[in-house]
Amino acid sequence: MRLKRQSKKLKAKAFDAERDAAQAALDDLKKAQEDNNLDEMKAKLEALNEKAQGLAVKLYEQAAAAQQAQAGAEGAQATGNAGDDVVDGEFTEKVRC
Predict the structure, then answer these.
(1) What does 3-61 look like in DSSP terms, one character per residue?
(2) What is the CA radius of gyration of the chain?
(3) Residue 37 to residue 33: CA distance in whole angstroms
(4) Picking from 12-16, 78-82, 85-89, which range would have the lowest pLDDT averaged per residue?
């Protein structure tokens, strides 16, 4: 359990770092825009796009991991209840002539 918590904390820190980097790139772009420097704006926009893409990848990875965890939990729950809905019955066959 402790390892799971540490893993979540590390993932959160990695996400925070990506988010902060994207925010810094956005701030740099705004400053370049205020300075009215077209070449710098292009460079800062490219940097922002790279940071935003990295952030999107992190979000996608987190969503996929959460979905896998949920599917694993549902699968374990379904496996535990697999025999609950089975009904045992007897029948006889009548032969008609």
Answers:
(1) HHHHHHHHHHHHHHHHHHHHHHHHHHHHHHHHTT-HHHHHHHHHHHHHHHHHHHHHHHH
(2) 28
(3) 6
(4) 78-82
